[in-house]
Amino acid sequence: MKNYLLFGMALCSAVVLSSCKSQESAYRQAYEKAKAQEREQSAQNNGEAVAVTPVNGGSEQTVSVTPVTTVPAQDTDNSDVRTIPGGVTVVNGEGLRTYSVVVGSFVTQANAEGLMSTLKQKGYAARVVKTNETINNHTGWYRVIASSYDDKASAIQSRDELKNTYAGAWLLYNK
Hints:
single chain; alpha+beta; Alpha-Beta Plaits; 6-stranded mixed sheet; elongated
């Protein structure tokens, strides 16, 4: 009885282990497909013709590959530029140009003018403007503008320099 049990277990083990054998053809097909893709990729980089062998066992075909040329995108900056509905009124300083760099927003005019004087000491043509925006149930904010420019590129450059000190600096578009 023990012999039959041992023989049955050995037979079951042999069947289980042999049935888990992977199919070599599936691995070979995957390998050939990967190699063909690799050849195509290298040919695209070199701009030459490639010999491609289909995975399903067809005949070898030569395919001419035309290299793709890329054109760099225009150097446009799609930076966040905001407008303030209802416009702004200059409270202290020069008038605004088309693009301005805003570095602070205050509820009280005294705080805004304090930051403005700090910026003027650093050499900026700072100014304070008042808006009619309602933010957090408070209407009438004082925005501190560090610099104002006619072109967007100069304003972006100034904003990027100011972001080291004033992390929340942003661009205001004044129509």
